[in-house]
Design goal:
heterodimer; A: 582 residues; mainly alpha; 27 helices; B: 229 residues; elongated
């Protein structure tokens, strides 16, 4: 059955078929179900619509927006309201003009119509909005709707008439915004200014909010970011501010220096009445991911401290984001030690930074390109992540997180098609490893190990008594004592000293031998295995451990495979990269 | 003064719209009306077309099918004709095919070499143009079967030739080719056997225990003899 495309973009909840009280997991489940049908490589246009809907809900969940099953309708019936309401304006009214004044400031007192004070004081009340928005006089039969008047009246006269109108409805502000584009083309921001003025007069009007949010996501030139953010902060100074402007802040962070960005942010925050702090918590959790690459360390740490102090606002919708941001910060701090001049590491670093700082699709593209490079150059990856170097834990953790995130977004995080076949292939590989090992070498090793136990036992049994006898001389009771001491030494050797010294020594020797074989033979076979099966790294470890447990009596040195693989960062990187290949 | 017809039509279509439901459409029409260049945005802006992607995939599939018979210029022209920037996975595939195409003329030269092995040659030609997933499975299977094959040395000699005399072909898949060079022929079929070396446990030979006991007794006897007056 085809998804209800007609519900997009205004009813993404209905589109995903989400029940009341759904959470992020339910959303992800529905999203993944649709992606199985509309894979990005086969249906990119449909995928984008699904993705946009997903991100819209995901953002609302993060900001704790109240979501309802049906689209929230405006109080104002838009097109039919335009057709039926009267157009006449009270002659004594002198309405606010956004052209010369800052739209965030209400018009001067002397110019305000008498009804505007009531509107200002009851701004948050929906009923009063309705009273002030709709004119007192009933519609007259001769008045025509704006849609018709546009046919034979000039936009300039309509614009002037609406501007001079005392009490404007949300539709009036919308119409003014549209007419401003025609009447005053030299100021494209006038469109935005009328929207903001409309929101000041009719706060929380859903249609204007929706249009404003869409506008802020697409239409702002880099050089206008700063003043738009400041204007919106004055027009929408409540907890909606960060929800509406999040993407514009992303853009500002890209185009402004960090000092300018921080200055604008502080200026905007001054007037906000987000007393619940929730909007700021969500916003900072989001913006930190990109900001950490530009901001001074102190700013990042101060922000992390702020988030920790307001942990009660970290809803479960935000936990994943905060976790990812924390992982990225850990990597950021360890970055210098990770970069060792190898191309593979440089590219991984660039991909992580691009993922965090670029627009989402551009960031994904960079990451996918990097994965294609890594998958196509396994030799470079193997030498970039040598077993002789410390395991780059922070880097690989961050890389795993961002890669899994992109795999999820692209719908590529499905299970491999044939896990059973992958398991059989893995068993075959382990048996081959055992069969290819030079048996004599391992037999010699084991023989030497056993011989060391014998020599040790011999020394304990004889050496102590002989020494004592030579030092202290011997009588029959002394000899018996020496024998008891010898026996005691033997027991101590077996129960204690052997485990503390001999066994670890041979384990280290064995590990060195295994590592040598792993690097020269096994590693290549495992790389090819990942290319053939596309198992995840953890699936490989789990499957190999299960196989080894089941066949523990038949397998030999190959039992070391999961141990060596778990220490091998290169294989983690290669396993991830293979999953991006189609 | 009446405005031009396009402006009137624009205003009418916009005034008819509901910003709650049609915000994106309103803004798209507005941008068109203003003559603004669509901002390069992420997914909410220009969406990659399904048709473009399918066409690109089909092109790459055809190029793969006809890779060894298509004239080089045609091949390069076809791959260059499609803009694959928005499909990084397909771009990687096309780049790979272009790279292989650059050195395609070397394959006939390799076929003339005295150490030419036809089986390996045909497999190598397949692997370098297959999609990555298929190539991965085939490479693993080939390696397995080579290890049990009596001709493994012949294949390894050919790989050695590729590595030393045709380095550009070697670069097409150095990792897999090196894995072939490291292969040792397996004597028999793969079986799960018991560990022969006693690796998992400790065992002391019986004769060693006998020797230890005898020596203990002898030393105790010597000590006892020395201590008696």
């Amino acid at each position: 059955m085809s998804p209800p495309w007609e519900l997009l973009p205004h009813d993404p909840v209905g589109f995903f078929g989400l029940a009341e009280g759904f959470d992020r997991k339910d959303l992800k489940r529905s999203y993944n179900a649709l992606l199985r049908e509309f894979k990005p490589e086969k249906h990119p246009a449909e995928f984008q619509r699904i993705r946009a809907a997903y991100e819209s809900i995901e953002q609302q969940l993060r900001y704790g927006r109240e979501l309802i099953r049906r689209p929230r309708t405006s109080r104002y019936n838009w097109p039919s309201e335009a057709q039926s309401r009267p157009e006449s304006t009270p002659p004594e009214a002198k309405p606010p003009s956004p052209v010369s004044a800052d739209p965030s400031r209400p018009p001067p007192e002397s110019t305000r119509p008498k009804g505007a004070d009531a509107a200002a004081s009851h701004r948050r009340s929906g009923e009063d909005n309705r009273r002030t928005a709709t004119p007192a006089a009933p519609p007259q039969a001769t008045e025509r709707p704006l849609i018709e008047r546009v046919l034979d009246e000039s936009p300039q006269s309509l614009y002037a008439e609406l501007r001079n109108k005392a009490a404007k409805s949300p539709y009036d502000f919308y119409a003014l915004a549209l007419l401003a584009d025609v009447v005053q083309r030299d100021d494209p921001l006038l469109f935005l200014k009328w929207l903001l003025t409309g929101l000041k007069a009719h706060p929380h009007e859903p249609a204007l909010i929706n249009l404003l949010q869409a506008y802020l996501q697409h239409e702002i030139a880099d050089q206008d970011c700063r003043r738009v953010l400041l204007a919106v902060a004055k027009a929408v100074p409540d907890e909606s501010f960060f929800y509406l402007t999040e993407r514009l802040w992303d853009q500002a962070l890209r185009c402004l220096s960090f000092e300018d960005f921080d200055a604008v942010l502080r200026q905007c925050e001054v007037g906000l009445s987000d007393h619940r702090v929730q909007g700021r918590v969500v916003f900072y959790t989001h913006i930190l991911r990109a900001a950490m690459w530009k901001a001074p360390r102190e700013w990042v740490e101060r922000t992390l401290t702020f988030l920790n102090q307001h942990g009660e606002w970290i809803t479960h919708h935000l936990e994943y984001d905060l976790e990812l941001t924390t992982r990225l910060w850990e990597y950021h701090q360890a970055r210098a030690s990770f970069l060792n001049g190898r191309a593979a590491r440089q590219r991984i670093d660039q991909a992580i930074e691009s993922f965090c700082t670029l627009e989402s699709r551009a960031g994904e593209r960079t990451l996918v390109e990097c994965q294609a490079y890594l998958a196509g150059n396994p030799s470079e990856v193997l030498s970039a992540f040598s077993l002789h170097q410390p395991f780059p834990r922070e880097a690989l953790r961050a890389w795993s997180w961002v890669s899994e995130e992109v795999l999820g977004r692209l719908g590529l995080d499905d299970e491999p098609e044939d896990l059973q076949a992958a398991g059989k292939r893995l068993l075959q590989m382990l048996v081959e490893i055992d069969q290819d090992e030079p048996v004599s070498r391992w037999q010699t090793f084991v023989a030497l190990k056993n011989l060391s136990y014998i020599v040790g036992s011999f020394l304990m049994v004889f050496w102590c008594p002989l020494l004592l006898g030579w030092l202290l001389g011997g009588s029959a009771p002394a000899v018996v004592l020496y024998a008891i001491i010898g026996l005691g030494s033997l027991i101590a050797f077996w129960l204690w000293w052997r485990k503390r010294t001999v066994v670890p020594l041979f384990d280290r020797i064995q590990e060195r031998m295994v590592r040598k074989r792993y690097l020269s033979q096994w590693r290549d076979a495992i790389v090819l295995y990942f290319a053939a099966t596309h198992l995840t790294f953890h699936q490989f470890l789990e499957t190999s451990q299960a196989i080894i447990k089941h066949y523990s009596k038949q397998l030999n040195v190959s039992t070391w495979v999961p141990i060596m693989v778990s220490r091998d960062g290169a294989l983690l990187v290669i396993a991830l990269a293979q999953r991006f290949l189609q | 003064m009446s405005e031009s017809r396009p402006v009137v039509q624009y205003l009418q279509s916009q005034l008819r719209a509901n910003p709650f439901r049609e915000a994106e459409g309103i803004l798209r029409r507005r941008a068109r009306h203003l003559g603004a260049k669509p901002k390069p945005t992420d997914h909410r802006g220009q969406t990659p077309s399904t048709e473009r992607r399918e066409a690109a995939q089909e092109l790459i599939r055809k190029v793969r099918e006809q890779f060894w018979s298509l004239p080089l210029d045609d091949l390069r022209r076809q791959l260059a004709a499609v803009d694959l920037k928005e499909f990084p996975d397909l771009k990687a595939a096309a780049d790979r095919l272009l790279y292989v195409a650059t050195y395609r003329p070397m394959f006939p030269q390799l076929a003339q070499h005295k150490r030419f092995n036809s089986t390996f040659f045909s497999v190598f030609k397949r692997i370098v143009v297959l999609p990555p997933r298929e190539a991965g499975a085939l490479k693993d299977d080939v390696l397995r079967s080579l290890a049990a094959h009596r001709d493994v040395r012949a294949c390894q000699r050919m790989v050695q030739v590729i590595k030393s005399e045709f380095p550009q072909l070697y670069q097409l898949d150095p990792h897999w080719l090196d894995a072939i060079l490291k292969l040792k022929r397996r004597a028999g079929p793969l079986v799960l056997t018991s560990p022969s070396s006693g690796e998992g446990g400790f065992s002391i030979p019986g004769w060693a225990i006998v020797v230890v006991v005898v020596v203990v007794i002898r030393i105790l006897a010597i000590l006892a003899r020395n201590s008696s007056p």
